[in-house]
Amino acid sequence: DLSADLFGQTLTSPLLNASGVHCQTKEELNDLANTSNLGAMVTKSATLQAREGNPNPRYYDLENGSINSMGLPNLGYDFYLDYVLQEQTKPTILSVAALSAADAITLLKDLQASDYQGPTELNLSCPNIVGEPQLAYDFEATDRVLSEVFSFYTKPLGVKLPPYFDLVHFDKIAAVLNKYPLTHVNTINSIGNGLWVDVDQEQVVTKAKGGFGGLGGTMVLPTALANVRALRQRLNDSIKVLGTGGVTSGADIFAHILCGADLVSVGTQVMKEGLGTYDRLAEELKAIMAEKGYQSLADFRGKLKEL
Ligand code: DHB
After folding, report:
1. Which of 138, 159, 208, 282 suits a disulfide with 37, CB 3.0-4.6 Å?
2. Cβ atoms within 10 Å of 171's Cβ, excluding its own
3. 120-123 and 4-6 strand pairing
4. Which percentage of the chain shows pLDDT scores above 90?
């Protein structure tokens, strides 16, 4: 039994798409709604104004993952809000991103005033906007934005975090997040600003930012697991942890859940393998659970053993 919970809604599976993957257009969102073993879906991060994103090539497939410099291409906040209000047929998290703190406030004030009551995720970690830092690497700025947001916002809201690499940074971000009534954190976003080198061509593989881009896929799995584990150990129980990063097998999902993930997202592998990935992963996860004698995800969630 793979059933899971999204803030009170029962899901048939703990699997989500990673935001950005196959969730930009109405057709893509409808495809996700019709994808079996995808428990819930997440929209492409919406900005106040529609964006074309960065120039192509902006996604490149690597043997052990992917690198991208998409630049938040999206159809704009109004489109995704209409989608979740009018077209939604599967539990959906509305992902929103802001190019500035002021934009975040404007967008969330509008959302607060709207009819939408469902879950939202504020992306504090896009690595690909030229000249804009990943906000959640600035703990004080993150605190200021959340403080202002929660002065008026009363609907379910979580945040998408970038990966952290230092135990003190885990302490610092958790101390900020624990001050607010967040529904969840989604960890990790891409590892920002890697660089792939095509040795034959002696050149980079994506256009924007001189080839620097966000990393995903197998190569980020240990970083993702560390972030899920470290945040689960530090955050209030009321804040769910959505694990994202490096999943290519049922065993990887099992590992995310052992580290404390409530739900698990898959991005790069879906780019490589298509939406059928979720059926394969669900079967692999069920097989591992059967072999180990586990009936439900709660039997092993967060129960990673230390030496
Ligand atoms: C983009 C946004 C993200 O949050 C991310 O992790 C990777 C890419 C983008 O659209 O550029």
Report:
1. 282
2. 12
3. unpaired
4. 95
Atom of ligand 1 nearest to the CA of 126: 4
Tokens of residue 186, six digits = 């989604």
The rounded distance, in Å, linking the Cα atoms of 225 and 140 is: 25
Q: pLDDT for 278-297, tens place per residue?
A: 999 999 999 999 999 999 99
ipTM of the predicted structure? 0.93
Tokens 């997040």 identify what position? 177
For ligand 1, the distance from its centroid to the CA atom of residue 299, given in whole angstroms, is: 33
Ligand 1 centroid–CA 293 distance in Å is 38
Cβ-contact 215, 194 below 8 angstroms: yes
CA of 211 to the centre of ligand 1 (A): 14
Q: Which domains does the chain have, with CATH numbers?
A: 4-53+72-190+217-299 (3.20.20.70)
Element (H, E) at 11: strand 9-11
Active site residue 259: no
Q: Which of 21, 45, 137 to mutate to test the pocket of ligand 1 (most atoms within 8 A of CB)?
A: 45
| Residues with a CB atom less than 6 Å from ligand 1 | 20, 45, 68, 70-72, 123, 125-128, 189-190, 214
Three-state secondary structure call for residue 212: strand
The pLDDT, as a whole number, for residue 99 is: 87
Enclosing H/E stretch for 185: strand 184-187
